[in-house]
């Protein structure tokens, strides 16, 4: 059977339905081709009862079909009724196997042998039929599925959902919604942020986690799936839990082979048929998740074939429906139509200089900013909706040193200067047009490390953290560009010695970022190798085998590097380096780094000096092994105890020497008196090894667990690295649940106490330290009971003299130290 139409729409999802309805309303000969026996298969396969969101709320819906947020069944019912009412011509059970021909005369062949002849083709096929598969080993008998139809079908099961985008979160919440089903649901997110999920979904998930109905594993990946169990790589090491079923919702990729093959010419290459370059529909890059190259009117590189919806990189339903409407208008000759988001972007860009149109600014951003080079025009529009644009005059600060902020900046026009010396603003490093800055805050969550000013009139795009993370995850070339820039700048900062970007270019080009599980070995003593490793995130411990036993040498925080000794002297590795916690390292190719050392004598001299220092430590241990055998063993075991108790991710930790502590509790009292009557530490709690005690007090982790899922973003880092909670805390308790060390408590602030003198001379008040619950209750003002909030050590930020707990200790038993300063075997030499 052969059908002739002006427009053939392939796929009846929101984009395809809207396109076909617009064609019907305009009286254009059309056909909507659907491979199943029902409309909108992707939403049809949503879990039963799923709430379908209509975001973004600021975007006007432009379609001949209605769409409001509601249950899956209601949405589908509305579309079925209105599609029939609009007299859309639907061809069901018709799967297209090939598209040939040219504009004005395309031939679409179905698998059943039918043919549709069309002047233009609209591809609205989505990506859900091509899900990303789990990458870990799957044992025989293990159940892994990529779709959840009805959460009510599963009862009394341990279910793991891998992937924390919208689909994964909604599946997990659906499985845990009914307590009578007794499902134990775990959802796994590979990062600490839910970058690709809607804010409403994230908040709902966090609420269910708080109620104990769902277990959320952050910064975790599955390493093995077996029948009855699943094994994870977590931030703190390996974890195995019961698992009857895995539901993998890790996104999907375009059906590339089918799309690229549309109207393509083929040629023989190495005995295979491949697409001839310059034919078929081209993609923005070779990455599996890349999208087709499209014009602003959605036309692909094959004239007459248009691409809309999720296949175009615009997955939100409202966006898809607007595209369906717009593309038919474009095909019908409406050249003046602007996208529905045009007024929003016009208002956003109005503050920029030059009185340029939205299209002109988008062209500027897309062509002049490096990380946007592979972003399609449609993706760029969506990205701009979630970003801020701003212009700065010469000398104006974009942000100041120690400002809070985790956003990423991209320079569209102009350049900026980075003030690298806080005491001398004249010492600067330039960053030019097209590049980025602020990536340190994006990666680490720390406050801004430098002041950055415009060197000339400058226009920047500021990407909010979630927008930047979404860009990294959905546009791999952008992610690689950000990674490359961050590596380059980290190397220049660590090695210094007058190096420039050009000097390290070869090393950066060959650099590789690797994830390292807690306990995994990066360098092994005795092995050969010349690669250098930079600790990008996390921390490492260094050990040396002496008399058959591993002896702890030192602790290395993020920003350190190892491996240069073997590179310089050509000898086997002199020590073992392994991850104290889950970490990231940058592997620098030895050959390239060796060439850099030969070209830069200053860098070689610096590396040799550090190598000599490490050799001194090795010689110290080996030379005193017999004399201080018990001391070395004790130190090594003590260091391992500290690492096992969280020192590996600390930046500042409170330690108490039990041989000096007299149990006066002055530390707790001083802490309470400095913080509205509530102590931030528990001296007696915590673990002890030998004479060293680790009380329950905040470690101010390099990448704090407590910062994850703080709804008001109330947890911040101070200029000295302290992690503190500000007054915007709403008392949700997420930080308390996420902290693995039990150092956060939820409590209400007690009423003000009388002064110390009033207590001493008149007996007023409860005295020094934290008031008792009886006093707090007795002195509370009726009707003014304060809600609970999160309370933790803030290192006495803003209090002159430093931590009150240390100042109040009469014997010097309490100390606060950075682990890299404390965990070094060189201290043995000082003490001996």
Automatic annotation (TrEMBL):
PROSITE patterns: 4FE4S_FER_1, 4FE4S_FER_2, CNMP_BINDING_2, CNMP_BINDING_3. SUPFAM superfamilies: 4Fe-4S ferredoxins, cAMP-binding domain-like, FAD/NAD(P)-binding domain. It comes from the Bacteria. CDD domains: CAP_ED, DMSOR_beta_like. It comes from Novosphingobium anseongense. Gene3D superfamilies: 3.30.70.20, FAD/NAD(P)-binding domain, Jelly Rolls. Residues 652-684, 689-720, 721-749, 787-820 form the 4Fe-4S ferredoxin-type domain. Pfam families: cNMP_binding, Fer4_11, Pyr_redox_3. Residues 371-489, 495-614 form the Cyclic nucleotide-binding domain. Keywords: 4Fe-4S, Electron transport, Iron, Iron-sulfur, Metal-binding, Transport. This is Cyclic nucleotide-binding domain-containing protein. InterPro entries: 4Fe4S_Fe-S-bd (IPR017896), 4Fe4S_Fe_S_CS (IPR017900), cNMP-bd_CS (IPR018488), cNMP-bd_dom (IPR000595), cNMP-bd_dom_sf (IPR018490), FAD/NAD-bd_sf (IPR036188), RmlC-like_jellyroll (IPR014710), RnfB_subfamily (IPR050294).
